[in-house]
Amino acid sequence: MGVNLKKLGKKLDAYKHVLIVMRHAKAESFSAKGDRDRELTDKGLKQAKTVGRGLAELELVPDRIAVSGATRAQQTLERMLKFFGDKPNVDNRQSLYDGGVQAVLDELAHTPGKTRVLLILGHEPTVSISCQWLSSSDSDPAALDLLTLGMSTAAVAIFGSDKPFDEWQVHSGDLLAVLNVKDFE
User: Fold this and answer.
1) Separation of alpha carbons 6 and 181, rounded Å
2) Are 3 and 140 in contact (CB under 8 A)?
3) In whole angstroms, what is the distance from residue 15 CA to residue 83 CA?
4) 78: part of which helix (H) or strand (E)?
5) Which residue, 66, 100, 161, 176, shows the most beta carbons closer than 10 Å to its own?
6) How far is Cα 169 from Cα 86, in angstroms, rounded to an integer?
7) Mind listing the pLDDT tens digit for each residue in 35-89?
8) What burial class does residue 6 get, using C-beta atoms within 10 Å of its C-beta: 0-12 exposed, 13-18 middle, 19+ buried?
9) Torsion of CA 165, 128, 177, 181, to 10 degrees
10) Is this prediction's pTM over 0.90?
11) 103-107 long-range contacts, Cβ below 8 Å, gap at least 24?
12) Which residues 6+ apart lie within 8 Å of 102 measured at CB?
């Protein structure tokens, strides 16, 4: 499903608040140190760079980023920050590794109202389930269908809303797109 990024950018301009929910980039399948310490593969490093560049080109540099404490999520963000500069306020959250959907909802609840672009970077299945719960009835049906399959590595779901994040509840955001790495290439 090809997404026209220019059209998406114009749609996003109409919203006061933009939420980006992302799954970490491709990681090794096993680590002797345990799941939390799995590192990105070479492919994952490239994916993170591509998505970071793509979001910056869409002018979606986050004001705030909440990222899982797992190594693969931290490494994904490190690659992306090269394109975001010093703008984002970054919060490392263990809860985004092991806290499920409630951790995502907690991040929204604790995001200041002045925040325009929020990025939450976590893991499957939490990211796709959270996106389904957050999607309003005005969401793109094709994007919703993609979420039922789960989010692939380095995929992002992009929402728009006029409500500040700390007022979001279930079904508060218009899901506008689910983008994979190839959409940014």
Assistant:
1) 16
2) no
3) 23
4) helix 71-84
5) 66
6) 30
7) 999 999 999 999 999 999 999 999 999 999 999 999 999 999 999 999 998 889 9
8) exposed
9) 120
10) yes
11) 104/21, 104/130, 104/134, 105/130, 105/168, 107/66
12) none
Distance CA 185, CA 49 (A): 11
3-state secondary structure (DSSP) of residue 44: helix
Contact 157, 143 (CB under 8 A): yes
The whole-angstrom separation of Cα 125 and Cα 100 is 8
- Cα separation, 64 vs 141, in Å, equals 28
> pLDDT (tens digit, 9 = 90+) per residue, 164-176?
999 999 999 999 9
- Cis before 62? omega within 30: no
Identify the residue whose tokens are 């939390």: 36
Instruction: Report whether 104 contacts 159 (CB < 8 A).
Output: no
Residues 56 and 83: their CA atoms lie apart, in Å, by 6
Model confidence pLDDT, tens digit, residues 76-105: 999 999 999 888 999 999 999 999 999 999
The label of the residue with tokens 């680590």 reads: 31
